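ping. complex inputs:
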Amino acid sequence: MTRTVRRRLFLSAAAIFATVLLAGFRGLATFGEFQGAYGSLLNRVAVGERHATNVVTAVVYDYRGVDTMGEESILFGATIGVALLLRRTRGERERRFGSRAAVRSSSRSEAIEIIGLALIGPIVLLGLSVVTHGSVTPGGGFQGGAVIASAATLVFLTGGYAAFRRVDPIPMIDLAEGAGVGAYPIVGVTGLLAGSAFLANVLPLGRAGDVLSGGTLFVLNLAVGLAVAASMVLIVSELLEQTLAIRESR
Amino acid sequence: MTFVIAALLVAIAMTGSAVVLTHDPFRQTAMLGIYGLLLAVLFVTFQAPDVALSIVAVGVVLLPLMILIALAKIEGRSR
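pong. complex structure:
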């Protein structure tokens, strides 16, 4: 296919796409106008029904809790896929990282080391706070888990690969991942055992605005936080291993 | 507020195009981070802090890092 043919094909396809898109835009509601009744309804009933002041969390982990279980297992599957794809294969050997080669080896700038070290603790705390306050303030398991995982990447930036490995040993991450992913359906079955539906909110709801409010919301946020943090640390760790430790043997 | 949103939307359209039009992968990754940061600000102005938190952690920190590590691997192999 020559360049001109390709360009003509693209331009005609783009013209058709633009026409359809513009026609679609004309049918949209005006900016800022919300027509769905479901959102307004939940905004009115969620605090009373679930004692959760963050209605988003109430929707994600309770009213639509089964969807979130599916999403969590998608993340789990994707993580397994990455781990499988990046494993050490035949014809590759792993470089051993001694404890001495660890902390000070490369030409990292001191500014990055100092700022990074100072930030690791606060970021982990922030992540834990975002996870545990999921039913009260914006955030929750997914967001907090991702924040915690970003603290783990700071460990690599400041201490290098060996330090990263020592802080995040693979068996521990695997355990956290499994526990997080497994806890979600267990909470769901608890609903069945209590004589209600799967994932029904059967735990005491507490007082709206408290950390331990929202019943199962708190537990599910912890589970997802664990799974998300472990998934992301595992993905970064597999990528780092592939880049830094695995060499093609010749 | 409308002005802020309009300015943000224009800036996001510009940085989004810049991500696509940047050829050097390293610069492209940096641009992707800026794009994610602007998206986060937009989500805050739309009163969606939950989504803003997600995009900061995933789109600004973890995704660029994953791309950078992959680029480092490719560089190391071609050398």
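Residues 2-78 of chain B form one domain.
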